[in-house]
Specification:
The protein has 439 residues and is of the alpha+beta class. It is 33% helix and 24% strand. It has 14 helices and 21 strands. The strands form five sheets. Strands 17-14-16-15-19-20-18-21 form an eight-stranded antiparallel β-sheet, with helices on both faces. It has a five-stranded antiparallel β-sheet with strand order 7-8-12-10-11. Strands 1-2-3 form a three-stranded antiparallel β-sheet, with no helix packed on it. α7 runs antiparallel to α8 and α10 packs antiparallel against α11. The two termini are 33 Å apart.
Length: 439
Amino acid sequence: MSSTTSAKNGTWHNWGGNVGARPGREVTPATVEDVAAAVRRAAEDGLRVKAVGTGHSFTSIAATDGVKIRPQLLTGIREIDREAMTVTVEAGTPLKRLNAALAREGLSLTNMGDIMEQTVSGATSTGTHGTGRESASIAAQIRGLELVTADGSVLTCSAQENPDVFAAARIGLGALGIVTALTFAVEPIFLLTAREEPMSLDRVLAEFDQLWAENEHFEFYWFPHTGSTNTKRNNRSAGPEQPVGRLAGWFEDEFLSNGVFQVANWVGRAVPATIPSIARISSRALSARTYTDIPYKVFTSPRRVRFLEMEYAVPREALADALRELKAMVDRSGLRVSFPVEVRTAPADDITLSTASGRDSAYIAVHMFRGTPYQRYFTAAENIFTAYEGRPHWGKIHTRDAGQLAAVHPRFGEFTALRDRLDPQRLFQNDYLRRVLGP
């Protein structure tokens, strides 16, 4: 589940397969000093620079024809501070390795997204999040970071040190420099009880405020062409641990959610008329289940079926209206949508360009199976989301530009002013950043 570079012609592709680039040079630094040297050399050679993690973004945010910095040697835990309850980790560390290492130490992040293949810096730089009533994105759990800026100097940032850079660089889009290390708040490991259960869409939307208020982590998947959802509530538990049984876990998470789902999508891609029937069967196939386990085993799940995705954050109070509009659009459009729509929430945070910056947010994510035409569906969905002052996820497909984004991100000018100061020559620029941040 990662990006690929073909040795034949040096072309890099992202996980979704919708973005490709041919870097002029590839560097694999092992230390922060190596990164600083690579940045200085790129500037001397007049080349742009991008750090590229696992390629899990669906946008071209990591694409470059200049110097590609691969962080796979910048991995591992630098320090665990049990007094401050923080962990400092190298930027190229995959989230799955961080989660497993923390669990061995009896520690955990408070919240996480549902995929853990990404590097910590890639996930945070694009604003990766899970769902939470009080606990926010992965970036909101950052307590400090180390950043190599365009002149090759190394900035240490926290709420106390370079606080203006810290406010922005936690979700920095790769525009302010190369993140080389991150310090996260952690807590003693705990148990979560997950309750998954089917529920009608009408009921979920009618009771959404209550479901949100009563659960630490609430999310649901709506199956287009049906009135059905699968809901998931995760709450802290005193135990005992009752993980999903190995056979049941394989059947539901691998066989149904990946294997059968893959075949259903192949059928749907070949014969789109079958998709509504498949959706009705899919929405009934997943039965209710309850299990208790350590956080990363509850929050995350394997994603082997490849797809493309668009996700927007709308004000939380606008969720029901926006989703009803999305359903009405799908019902009347003749579109055939084989992937469920994912709905999550996050509390307001204080990160400059966070999708939840300054407002309690609900996320609506639409997906299409890789290789099927997605533009018509995504365009219609985007029109609905933007009417509710939606903010697009930085790592997922959208068509917004700097002018439109400045209108929905109140601190947009603060970010671009900081970028002017840290990277006046636009060493970290690429086509995507030119579009979303302006030239």
